[in-house]
Amino acid sequence: MPDKLCWRLGPETVTAMGPQELRLDVSMIGEKTRKPEHAIIHEVQNSCSEKELSRIRESWPTYVTNLRKRFHCKVTLLAMCPDERSARVVGESVDTGHPGFIFTPVTYWPGMLAAAIDPTSARTWPELVLLAATSQLSEDERRRVLEMVPAAVASFDDDRGVIYYEFIRTRLPEAARLELEEIMTISLENFTWESDFALKHQAIGRKEGRAEGEAVGRAEGEAVGRAEGEAVAVLTVLAARGIEVDAVARELILACGDTERLTEWLTRAVSVTSVEDLFVDSDNARIVGADQ
Questions:
Q1: Residue 78 forms beta bridges with which residues?
Q2: pLDDT of 203-227, one tens digit each?
Q3: Residue 131: which of 118, 119, 148 has the closest Cα?
Q4: What span, in angstroms and rounded, lies between the C-alpha atoms of 136 and 161?
Q5: Which of 11, 14, 47, 95 could disulfide-pair with 52, CB 3.0 to 4.6 Å?
């Protein structure tokens, strides 16, 4: 017991503060003859800010000990991070203070995963294609992975396929994005878009992109087409999540020509609770007059 601390008697019983519900991203329980043998907690951790690191270093050990107590089996916490640096920081060991009780999450990032480069693997494990397509790949690997995207996206229901395709497309560098769009155009007969709204505006975006390209150059036309696609993706995600979009907000989104702002809105669309939250910046100031 450290001498410099002032000690007092603590409680003889420790009652859980609650009821408290711990929200895990995903947990899987491995059983043998209906007896739990191993549990895996999977978390997606995109941020390694000090605030987030403080939160997960307190909550993640609790996730593991609570699941272990509930199922009486070994538990592993696995965290997916966006890149190698984030995985390294998030994966640092946490000293709980008890001798020998060092908690170390297992982390990985998309670049660690083996690329799915054949149609069978793409249909069986489409998620590996989605993750590999946005990671750092060699030129040869990139082309082979991108060629698997149509098969991977088609394995999902159509609404989710739209969301996942936009997830990949908006995170690719310019050259790879154009390459993917070419591949998807060639494979379009094998991929059916369910949403009439998405179909309509995808067609409009492509038509306007081509027309603008003929008038003022291919680069500007492609930018217009990309902006249309980004706007469609934002509205599709909101619709899939059941978020009501009024006519004013819909017009603002469709009229926006700033692809960076649209990408930001697409990221927010995954978590906002109302369409109004989409247009509020980090300082709680409403964004008005989006680029027309």
A1: 42, 106
A2: 544 554 555 455 544 555 555 567 7
A3: 148
A4: 23
A5: 47
